[in-house]
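Tutorial handout. Part one gives the primary structure; part two gives the three-dimensional structure as tokens.
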Amino acid sequence: METTAMTREVLLSPEAVESLDTLPAELRHQSSEKLTLLASNPFHPSLNAHRLTGLKNVHDKWECYINHSYRIIYDLGEGELRIWDIGDHSIVDRARNMSFAAGTMFQRLQAVAEPAADVKLFVESSDFNKEVIAKEQPFFRLAPAHLRVLGVPRELVKEVQHCDGFDTLEAMAGLPLHTVAWLEELATDESATRELFSPDDLFFRTTVSRLQGYCEGKIRQLMLNLEPEQQLYVDKEFPGGAMLLRGCAGSGKTTVALYRAIRLAEKGESVLFLTFSKALTDVATTLLKERIGDPLPRELEVRTVAQWATRFITRRGRSHWDMPTENQQKELMHAAAKSAAVTNPHPILQDIGFLLREVHGVIKATGLTSDEQYLAARRVGRGAALQASARRAVWAAHEQYQKLLERSNMIEWEDLPLLVHRTLDQTPLESPYAHVIVDEAQDLTASEIRLVQRLGTSVFLVGDVAQSIYTRGYSWKDAGLSLQGRSFSLRRNFRNSRQVAQAAAAFIGHDLVLKSSEDWVDPEQVTRTGPWPVILTAESEDSEIPAVCDRILDLAGGNEFRVGDFAVLCRTNAQCDRVLQYLSVHNVPALLRKPDSPFNILEEKVKVMTIHSAKGLEFPVVFVMGWHEGQLPMLHTTGDAETAAIELEAERMLAYVAMTRASEALYLVTSPKTRSRFLDEIPDEMKLIEDLAFGPHGEH
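Part two.
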């Protein structure tokens, strides 16, 4: 089928009008969105449009999805879209008995009514005094951040707060005309005042027509737009076994995975959608519900690998255990190393941090079960291997460590796939999934990759080794994947501007081992243009968060970005807390991504999260904090040069992931003291240096 860019006129039958009027407010809003999309692009993949069959003497009627449970029955005419009915999926059965009379009187679609008064889109502050609006100094109660987002320049905030009327406002030099219009509307439109003013949130769209665009947001477009080359892999059929879709940053791998999951689930086939992190699971669930409705169909299950493994082990009888804390791990490993030193003395046993990384990242991650396997194990992309004597000492410490965990009734995250493997060896799954889809597969361990292959008839993996934020140390073949004729690549970057993509590619190019990997995907030239990444240099480290807050308000006030378009990525959780606290104190609405709480990527607030949590996500404007030695890169190694190089490589990949989250504008935040070496790896011609103490320079 061909899609068309023509926007058709939407006509509603009496039945469709009645149905639309009786829908709940939120569903009515969804219906409006789908009708708009249907009129402009009737074969968009998210509509799941298909011709109705089994109708009496009628062959040109179509069905599309509002969400998983609701449908639209329609036909397409020359320049018009005729809607016959809207309702739950029972209307499809009723359609088979409809007459579709030629004389049906259609009417043009009017603007869908806003939600009823009892449906509160915005929370009104209890201490908001509406009388202030009608008196002198009408904007005195608006917080500085609110005015900044409305477009008031920083230097005019106090003057606007104390202005005594519209004449003074209109005469104010330097105040943008659109800002004047918004302020006047806010002060005179009672409905706008009621709905758009809140000290808890910033709302800078002051008309109902802008409100819908505000709720749409660029993030939704970024994460759910499907390009033709991506559609090929959504629809691609392949016999049982594994298939790998590799892609560069921004190539839409997650988008392909989401739409493929939708397509297979709507065929009635069981689908398990797996990710490596809770953040990705939350985002995937939000976007899937955005496309097919809430709740998700029972055929579609979304979990992290650890969540699935935990539930499986619990159902198989192991329901009580503890997960050790970081301090407990160090204490147990210290005791294990002391015991191992009795039979296998070696200096390496003194490095507790290295022992934990080796046990977690090599022994358990690759599923090694004997010292012979460990002695023979190779490290992909590494230099000189650990000597045999050192490996024997490490293995002895591992065995003692595992015994101490068992005595304490503790299970580590890295143990979960190994336990599931052993359980499946004894009793396989009674009903494997028809399809397993794995997003960001490069961040799974070899043991986890082997596990997911046992869960379904077909396994579809998407990934990019350049974005592996955990040291892999294995090849796909090592993980049991046979990919001859089953590996494909997406080389076009749909997310980043050309400037962000080029700077990020030049930066990761310093990792020569990665670029020589057979899994490296060399991206195609990006055509969409934008600004070069900005090195935002504050006067001191304490000034970095205020500088970011100030820049967010400047950009939002410029009427190009909304508050929900910004993300602040931090190296540590503690830094996330400091950013959130500062933004909240200064009346900038912000949402902190916490490990154990739900996360809605479409919520209209500044998103604050760690770089690890941002993996797989994308935002219009990204601020990356902490470009300092000790933060980015954050190096722990005090031992051999090879291990230090491996750690630096992992930190560079993490910084690359952070950079490639930005689709339009990227800010790398630092200050003169302990400035990160990574900033020097970005070519001078590919970055703008903005020193807040001396003004911008270095523009190319």
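Part three, for discussion. The CA atoms of residues 370 and 395 lie 8 Å apart. Residues 388-407 form the longest helix (20 residues).
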